[in-house]
């Protein structure tokens, strides 16, 4: 029974602004991509495919050190980067996860819950958390048009889990739509699965699975790791 994971890590990290790929940013002495891979393996993943910026494969292999992961070159956008990794997912995989390197502190329990839900028969699974902020729809000049009813809204995270045939079919559909000049609206892999009519299940997410996007997020990750280290000693 093989559980595989794709780790998209080919982004430039422009909002973080370090001048190098975000996945190579260091928190508590370890790169985000190495932390993400460790969390996946601890959560029960057997095979990891990391997607690096094209030309950066060797630098990523070095960052991953002794970790068992295949490194492949990515694409201009996240959907393309995930698609580029599908060919390196073993054919016998029973479950495939897609997990942003930027969500490097996702607890292994979330990984386990996603895997278990796919094994239980769900074709697509996302970790979901309640939305805390009040949401407004705004119009021209930022004027509020309406307050959005928060009932039934969820913020979703990664890892997202799939039965491999479903993930392949979803990306194949997205690629043919794009080749035909259609709009690409989905911003995550579960969204691509929804577009082919797949029902997406949720499991409880975790605030620690937040995405490192800005310098503030990096400071928060640093503080969380420091607190965990202090608690462990
Ligand atoms: N990603 C990727 N390939 C891309 C773009 C993004 O593999 N062409 C990955 C990122 O490396 C990240 C995840 O998708 O792990 C989520 O993307 P995001 O947080 O937007 O990261 P970046 O694109 O690197 O950041 P920014 O948008 O600020 O440049
Ligand atoms: Mg981006």
What does this structure look like?
This protein has 7 helices and 12 strands. The chain is of the alpha/beta class and 233 residues long. Strands 1, 4, 5, 6, 7, 10, 11 and 12 form an 8-stranded mixed β-sheet that branches. Strands 2-3 form a two-stranded antiparallel sheet. Strand 8 and strand 9 (144-148) form a beta hairpin. The longest helix has 18 residues, at 215-232. The radius of gyration is 18 Å and the shape is globular. The site of cytidine-5'-triphosphate (CTP) has 22 residues, from helix 3.
Could you write a compact summary of the structure shown?
The chain is α/β, with parallel strands linked by helices and 233 residues long.
Q: What is the CATH first-level class name?
A: Alpha Beta
Residue share in β-strands: 15-25%
Total tally of structural domains? 1
- The fourth-level CATH homologous superfamily is Spore Coat Polysaccharide Biosynthesis Protein SpsA, Chain A
Radius of gyration: 18 Å
Write down the overall geometry.
globular
Mean pLDDT: 96
Query: Under CATH, the topology is which?
Result: Spore Coat Polysaccharide Biosynthesis Protein SpsA, Chain A
Q: What share of the residues lie within helices?
A: 25-40%
Please give the count of helices: 7
CATH architecture: Alpha-Beta Complex
How many strands? 12
Which structural category do the helix and sheet elements fall into? Answer: alpha/beta
Distance between the termini: 36 Å
Q: Let me know the largest β-sheet.
A: 8 strands, mixed
Ligands, ions, cofactors: cytidine-5'-triphosphate, magnesium ion
Summarize the helix and strand pattern as letters. Answer: EEEHEHEHEHEEEEEHHEH
